């Protein structure tokens, strides 16, 4: 185990590239942890290779833009297609899971998307990990640059101004929060794998 890296898949959809930026930041955070490697897995086409990469992962971090108050339809199609993994004796049982979402409004009902992702992961018998960051930007002296400026515990949130391209949004502050989620999941996954060895 000591030479086997913890494999963190970041399974995401992005219609216009903004959530893809968030996914890249999550993956960068995960791979910044010694002993962890990240695999960015777009969900636009559900090929056998996609399912194989997810099966090989020790953790899967799910991400989608919030569309009409919930994860995008492309992500939901993936979630429904994953029933074949579920039916095969909970094929993702005991993998670590986490989630992130991005939308144009500060709230935009993003929490509903994270709840959806968490329910999805736990239906698969996965172990959900949230953020361990106190809400930022929530005191008179606080800054928009604070980690977790949107104040979510369940997963990482990002906000992208509707008139900005994916080169400019979401802002760096939300990408840092995304990276923090990736790093936390990598750390927890390494502990989980070591614990499984000891058990
Ligand atoms: C069909 C559709 C529905 C949307 N619904 C919401 C919403 O419920 N709340 C919100 O804040 N933004 C909403 N948006 C805005 C997107 O979440 C936002 O533009 C996001 O940055 C898109 O991410 P993407 O580039 O990864 O697709 C919606 C956009 C689309 C296209």
From TrEMBL:
Name the Gene3D superfamilies on file: 3.40.50.360
Give the top-rank taxon of the lineage listed in the UniProt record for this protein. Answer: Bacteria
> Per the record, what is one GO cellular component?
membrane
Concerning PROSITE patterns, the annotation shows: FLAVODOXIN_LIKE
Show the Pfam families listed in the entry. FMN_red (PF03358)
Q: What is this protein called?
A: Multimeric flavodoxin WrbA
Q: Which residues form the Flavodoxin-like domain?
A: 8-186
Which Gene Ontology terms cover its molecular function? FMN binding; NAD(P)H dehydrogenase (quinone) activity
């Amino acid at each position: 185990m000591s030479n086997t890296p913890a494999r963190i898949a970041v399974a995401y959809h992005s219609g216009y590239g903004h959530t893809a930026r968030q996914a890249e930041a999550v993956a960068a955070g995960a791979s910044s942890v010694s002993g962890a490697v990240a695999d960015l897995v777009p969900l636009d086409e559900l090929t056998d290779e996609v399912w194989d990469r997810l099966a090989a992962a020790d953790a899967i971090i799910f991400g989608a833009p919030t569309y009409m108050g919930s994860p995008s339809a492309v992500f939901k199609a993936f979630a429904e297609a994953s029933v074949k993994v579920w039916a095969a004796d909970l094929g993702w049982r005991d993998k670590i899971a986490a989630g992130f979402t991005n939308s144009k409004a500060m709230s935009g009902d993003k929490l509903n998307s994270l709840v959806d992702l968490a329910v999805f992961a736990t239906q698969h018998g996965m172990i959900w990990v949230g953020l361990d960051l106190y809400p930022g930007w929530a005191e008179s002296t606080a800054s928009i640059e604070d980690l977790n400026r949107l104040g979510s515990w369940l997963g990482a949130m990002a906000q992208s101004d509707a008139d900005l391209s994916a080169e400019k949004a979401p802002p760096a502050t939300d990408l840092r929060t995304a990276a923090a989620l990736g790093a936390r999941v990598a750390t927890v996954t390494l502990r989980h794998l070591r614990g499984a060895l000891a058990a």
